[in-house]
Amino acid sequence: MQGGDRSVDVHGDAALYAVDALEPEERAVFEEHLRGCAACRAEVDSYGEVGAALASAVAQDPPPALRGNVLAAVHGTRTGAPTGTSAGSSSAAGPGTGASSGAEVVFLAQRRRPRRQWLAAAAAAAVLLPGAALGGWAIGTQTEQREQQQLAAQEQDRQTRLLAAADVATHQLAVDGRTATLVVSEQEDVAMLVAADLPAPGEGQEYQLWLMQDGSPVPDVHFGGGQVQVWLDGDVDRAGAVAMTVEPAGGSETPTLPVLAAVEV
Questions:
Q1: Is a pLDDT exceeding 50 seen at residue 91?
Q2: 154-163, 192-201, 228-237: segment of lowest average pLDDT
Q3: Would you place residue 133 in the very low, low, confident or very high pLDDT band (cuts 50, 70, 90)?
Q4: 122 pLDDT above the threshold of 70
Q5: What is the 3-state secondary structure (H, E, C) of 70-107?
Q6: Mean pLDDT for all residues in the chain
Q7: pTM of the model
Q8: Cis (ω within 30 of 0) for the bond into 258?
Q9: Range 92-128 burial, b when 16+ CB lie within 10 A, else e
């Protein structure tokens, strides 16, 4: 009966075989079975294909303890074998033997089956769960792409409204021999500074714009050098001019002289 039970169990060993979690004698039995079972061959191949694809996709080694944990669990099913585990000893038991106590005789293979089913599921998870993680990463990437596309669309719409405003105006600011352009619409209450190649403001420093409102400088956006495209944050429609200074990184509450450039708006 053990042999019959084992032949039933062997179909569930594909995942264990795929992660090399079978003992040598069981591996030999399964490989013999594998030669004549197309379903098991296909299952083993599928685990191999998934594992190879994941290895090339994420270039990440599985956790070192994974195989050890599976093997430890497998070995745990083979310790403390109960007495009376064979059909022969069961049928031969008479008065005075353990069988006479009324305890149900359960074959070792039957005791192993639920445990082996759990191990097979765990082994399959060991191969396939990285795929779930990769799938989650792909979903996350797609979500980020959608968010970026939405932000890009919003930015384009904002620029379109600025450039299409009836009162749109451009002003040139000279910054150390380079030119920055301030695009302003009081009607839309927006302004954007663009530059192709501003010189670096210096280590630990940033450029900062100031809105001149009622003769007082109101701090606005700060930024670095190079290619620049920044929106002003304040109330442009209340400003009479925009000025630029160099400030410590993070910006200032009051401007540091000298003023690099200024333009009426």
A1: no
A2: 154-163
A3: low
A4: no
A5: HHHHHHHCCCCCCCCCCHHHHHHCCCCCHHHHCCCCCC
A6: 74
A7: 0.47
A8: yes
A9: eeeeeeebeeeeebebbbeebbeebeebbebbbebbe
Task: Note the helical H segments in the chain.
Answer: 2-9, 14-18, 24-35, 38-58, 65-76, 87-92, 108-164
The encoded tokens of residue 240 equal 């009479």
**C-alpha closest to that of 191 among 239, 242, 236:** 236
pLDDT digits (tens, 9 = 90+) for 20-70: 777 888 888 888 888 888 878 877 775 654 455 444 444 445 455 555 555
> Sheet of 178-185: strands edge to edge?
169-175, 178-185, 190-198, 226-231
In whole angstroms, give the CA distance from residue 105 to residue 250.
78
Helix (H, G, I), strand (E, B) or coil at 233: coil
Dist CA 227 CA 59 (whole Å): 35
Sheet holding 261-264, edge to edge: 216-223, 205-213, 241-248, 261-264
pLDDT above 80: residue 78: no
Phi and psi, residue 216, nearest 5°: -115, 140
Of 173, 171, 170, 172, the C-alpha closest to 245 is 173
Residues forming beta bridges with residue 182, ordered by sequence position: 171, 193
* Number of Cβ atoms within 10 Å of the Cβ of 37: 16
